[in-house]
Amino acid sequence: MKNANITELLSKLVEIPSISSLDENQKDVLDSANYIAELFNEIGLNSKVTSSKNSKPAVLAQTETDPSKKTVLLYAHHDVQPVGDINKWDTDPFKPEIIDGRLFARGSGDNKAGVVTHYEVVKKLIDDVPVNIKIFIEGEEEIGSPFMAEFIEENKNDLEADVIVIADSGNIKSGVPTITTSLRGLVDGIIVVDQQMNPVHSGLGGGVVPDAFMVLSKIISSFHNEKGELLIDGLTPTDQDVYELSEEFVQNSLSSNGVNLFEMDSYSKRLWLEPALSILAIDAPPVEESVNLLIPKARAKVSLRLPPTEDPDHAMNMLHEHIKENTPWNANVEFIPEAKGKGVLVDPQKEFSTQLIKSFDKFWDNEVAFMGVGGSIPFANIFTEQFPNAEIVLVGAGDEEGNAHAPNESVNIEDIQRLIDSLADALSNY
User: Fold this and answer.
1) How far is CA 198 from CA 288, 291, 293, in A?
2) CB 328 within 8 A of CB 386
3) Domain enclosing residue 191, as ranges
4) Choosing a second label site near 180 at 20 to 30 A (CA), which of 167, 255, 267, 426?
5) Where are the alpha helices (DSSP H) in 49-205?
6) Is residue 263 part of a domain?
7) Does residue 90 contact residue 139 with C-beta atoms inside 8 Å?
8) Which residues lie across from 137 on neighbouring strands?
9) C-alpha 71: how far from its chain's center?
10) Residues 45 and 139 reside in one and the same domain
């Protein structure tokens, strides 16, 4: 069967429920790392499972080092998201099934396809390795890589490279080879409203005192205008030419049933190059437990995606200032900053990327596309800070049908094969 090796290996990997965010799956995360390390050992690499003091198990491997050759680091991650609502899956999330050329399972596209890609690339080249190859398979990407900076600092010699290929992105469409040229940054935090009063009967205090929900709703409503445009001052979009997404594409990528989208000139720029704020959670009593009391305290978690060139410290300050300026009725409001990370802007005209584009032409039927990603890959911005001279290349086998993080996650097996062939060819000619 065509692509049988890829299918078999990916199937074995996704059968391990390596969910990094759940305590009950920590042994699975370790089992996943051990299995991957053994795979690379079997084809002749020096491989080990390791971690920093706090990080999840990761795999480091490398070929024999030749000082006369350039060094390429191949990155992917082996941890996966939780299943979510099992009733929304058409298949068992950890029993892979092939349907119309796609393998369905949790982690199939995000990001065990990346692990398979790097393994098969090395396997193809192992008898005549054209460059020094280092492998880094992370185990905590799905929880935001919280200890990645610590891990890199402790393993700097094992990670330093001229080029890093991150196989954790995807293609704009199945069958269209794609290089990701930007990732948005991120800041987030918690808005805390504390009106410092005892719960008051709504019949006694309603209309007289602003309760916490009233205050919080006014702040939240201040973030956007009627067009969905962000109203936080001081944030500058990134100027870059990008692939233009259609409304149909956006609807499909959202797995929506025709939800109304905001009107805008460019979905691509809004998703990839402009700031966007989301309300991720609100602390509130459930409706079924409601009583006739005004609520004195309320909280909301906010997440602000940043243009790739935006400074996260500046963005955090602007978010804080906006909240202060839009706090109504002299209410008692605190903003607690949490995570922050810088975006990444990639130049696809650098040496290895240029060669990879030529290799794409050999193995794909469509021309290469260039796209941004609205989310973040924590490792990417951490690595660019630690190794500023390294060329970053963002690719992957996922596509808009893949449902990463959602029920019925899948990946196109043929696209994995094409990516393997392209990367192996590019490394051979680099």
Assistant:
1) 21, 14, 10
2) no
3) 185-238+274-340
4) 255
5) 113-125, 148-154, 156-159, 202-205
6) no
7) no
8) 59, 76
9) 25
10) yes
Q: Give the model confidence (pLDDT) of 377-406 as tens digits.
A: 777 888 888 899 999 999 999 998 999 999
* Tokens coding 132: 């020094």
Residues of the chain with pLDDT under 70: 1-4, 255-257
**Do residues 56 and 106 touch, judged by C-beta distance below 8 A?**
no
Q: Is 261 within a domain? A: no
Q: What amino acid is encoded at 131 in this protein?
A: V
Tell me how many domains the chain contains.
Answer: 2
pLDDT tens for 144-171 read 888 988 999 999 999 999 999 999 999 9
Strands 132-138, 71-77: parallel, antiparallel or unpaired by DSSP?
A: parallel
Looking at 340, 375, 398, the residue that finishes a domain is 340
Q: Bridge partners of 368?
A: none
Strand partners, 303: 188, 278
- Distance CA(129)–CA(114), nearest Å, equals 20
Rounded to whole angstroms, the maximal C-alpha distance in the chain is: 81
Q: State the chain's mean pLDDT as an integer.
A: 94
d(CA 266, CA 284): 35
SS3 at position 298: strand
| Nearest Cα to Cα of residue 273 among 377, 371, 184 | 184
pLDDT in tens, 98-136: 999 999 999 999 999 999 999 999 999 999 999 999 999
Residues 382 and 413 reside in one and the same domain: yes
Q: What Å distances lie between residue 177 and 32, 164, 403, 414, CA to CA?
A: 28, 18, 18, 12
Structural tokens at position 366: 């469509």
pTM equals 0.86
